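Async update (no meeting this week)

Hi team, since we skipped the sync, here's where things stand on the single-chain job. The sequence we agreed to prioritize is pasted below, unchanged from the tracker. I ran it this morning and attached the output directly underneath so nobody has to dig for it. Comments welcome in thread, and please keep replies under the output.
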Amino acid sequence: MELTHHKIATTKTVGEILRAERKKKNLSLDQAEEETKVRLKYLLALEESRFQDLPASVYAAGFLAKYADFLDLEREPLLAQFARERGEKPLASRLMVERKIKEPLFSITPSVFAIAAVVICIGLIIGYIGYSVRNFVTPPNLLISSPSAEEVVKEEQVEIVGKTDEGSTLMINSQAVLTDENGNFKQVVKLNKGLNSFEIKSVNQLKKETVKIVQILAEF
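Output:
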């Protein structure tokens, strides 16, 4: 059904028109405040033409537009008369539509900030757990930086240097080797003349292991 607005009698002030129409419809200011979301003190100021108690022109006009719509009154004549009563130039209809008072779509409040902080913390915890689980269920990393594969040396011993994952157990030919807090290790091993083979194994807490073989030819 098409909405038909009531015509406004211009012999009355805007405040008188608003108050008369509200009482005619048997509505209270509390009801008007609830429906329009305009504070009761501003609705009362509009009805009593107390312009000094209203906010800036654009906001006051926005309150009036909402109140007029609520009472099923024609908005434009009221806005024009309201501007005249305040001794101001009427605001264009398009401007009023664009600048109608709206509830903010989003605002940062302490509760919103707290929720965001909790979500971020949960995300970090989940990420850390996922990272830890991935490290456990996959074989550990194992890098041998020295000596190179099938190296020929002239000494009776050589130092095996490398790095594995933190928390993994490292063994060279089934003998445990100490690693530092970052998984770095150095171990001096004795060589026999000829070809020497060393099995270097890293085992994580879930018994996943990585094995590398280093062969060294000793000629001394």
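Quick observations from my side:
The beta strands are 142-146, 151-153, 157-164, 169-172, 175-177, 184-190, 194-203, 209-218.
The chain is about 40% helix and 25% strand.
Reply here if anything looks off.
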